[in-house]
Amino acid sequence: MGQVQTRMEQALKRLLPGPEIAPQRLHQAMRYAVLGGGKRVRPLLCFAAGQLVGAPPQRLETAAAAVEMIHAYSLVHDDLPCMDDDTLRRGKPTCHVEYDEATALLAGDSLQALAFQLLAELGLCADPGPQVAMLRILAQAAGSRGMAGGQAIDLESTGKTLSLPELEFMHIHKTGALIRASVLLGAHCGDALDPAILERISRYAHCVGLAFQVIDDVLDSESSTAVLGKTAGKDAAQQKPTYVSLLGPIKAKEWAESLRMQSREALSGIDAGAGRLRELADFIVTRQF
Amino acid sequence: MGQVQTRMEQALKRLLPGPEIAPQRLHQAMRYAVLGGGKRVRPLLCFAAGQLVGAPPQRLETAAAAVEMIHAYSLVHDDLPCMDDDTLRRGKPTCHVEYDEATALLAGDSLQALAFQLLAELGLCADPGPQVAMLRILAQAAGSRGMAGGQAIDLESTGKTLSLPELEFMHIHKTGALIRASVLLGAHCGDALDPAILERISRYAHCVGLAFQVIDDVLDSESSTAVLGKTAGKDAAQQKPTYVSLLGPIKAKEWAESLRMQSREALSGIDAGAGRLRELADFIVTRQF
Q1: Average pLDDT over residues A40-51
Q2: Does B2-286 carry CATH code 1.10.10.10?
Q3: Could you report the predicted ipTM of this complex, rounded to two decimals?
Q4: Could you tell me the CA-to-CA distances from A11 to A48, A138, B145, B174, B233 in Å, in that order?
Q5: B81 neighbourhood in chain A, CB within 8 Å
Q6: Which 257-286 residues of chain B touch chain A by CB within 8 A?
Q7: Domains in chain A: boundaries
Q8: What is the largest CA-CA distance in chain A?
Q9: Beta bridge partners of B88
Q10: Which residues of chain A lie closer than 8 angstroms to B101, CB-CB?
């Protein structure tokens, strides 16, 4: 994990426009939003799926960087005053606090464009067919029927009580779509996969994406701002429906554990190449931050 | 022009998620931001360039829709309180006034993702190679070294006096990049072009993009809110450097006319297929709104 994280930090530094390139303040804000923090869960999933298909590390780096830039942009916009209005992220002031709102807005917008630019790089794949497929996967996951749509449902749900299926629907979009895309992009970086195996990986990604969110809800209610590097207890303060508010902490943890088991079952019958994916399911459910 | 505009309105209606699809408010805001207004200058340029290369109309529709969605998202974000803080656009309340700031932010984000999703559509091009090139052109034009970067320079320049080259640098990014992309995308929708002709078209697009902005500055200072459908006189009120503030209205108009001539010269030697591009250069410089 540490190796992939270090490798990604270097790749992201290289793939982001340099801080000396005009417009400098914008590029500095983009780098601030992406570099020097985060668990890099999505890149880790991308690399782990790439292991299954013998994907070249450089292609995985680019795919993982594209996903991470979409993720970083969503955090920058989510933290804006008109959204969650948060001041702390990854242990640092949020982008609009460090810079200003307009710069944060444009940095988020630019990170989204850069993600697609990276995946559209000339020569990324030997065959441009899978490359177009990767662009399609990322665009669908990021848009109104994926991550951005999930954030809109989140906004509408604040202060309401959701049923478990409604909560799941929200998180399948808000968090799940991009996590699933991370796994699928990794799997598209190598040799073409048997559709039946792709289906199993997709099932794995679905379960892991939900488990990630259940644990996020648990940590928000049980951990501290210092450990998380972002404001803890925010869900309850903002009256957001969560797995903890709906199920209570004990049943929420049981649900995460069940999703972990389901994600591992989805991979049964796939050989040792799936080892890292299995380990990441464990990491996602047992993490403390 | 009317034919292409009508055709585009239908295409955009079809390509945007329906207002009944969840999350409904987000999809309604996206449709509000895109439909029922605008001159559709970028789609017109895309179709006109497509005429040169015998491009199939359905592919042009998709490419033009992708560009128009990037343009519409940029207007939604540009109108937000933390940017230009405007309340009128295309003769209607701006998106965040009609909906709310958070919804407008997410509608803009989703429109950007949708633009790339459209260009990544399975089967858009018979050969995925040019399709990846189209995605690359749009991503570069939209990002921090294109349109979004231009908006950042615009922010930094407010209240300052720019030199003519600095003003041009700003507008080549802010407006020019996407206008150039519109022309290049249209040219990529058909048979492969001779690089020398592509170079001429690119030169045409550069001049037309600048001319568009010079006239925009003239209209902002000389026309009325009723005619423009957006707040007139905003540049002077916000102390933004413009071609009018720098050159005065007479020299600004002469500069636009010179750019129109340069754009037509760039096309000299290209046969009748360039007729619509020539007409659009005339339209862009003589338009009254």
Answers
A1: 96
A2: no
A3: 0.96
A4: 17, 19, 19, 28, 45
A5: 82
A6: none
A7: 2-286
A8: 51
A9: B93
A10: 82
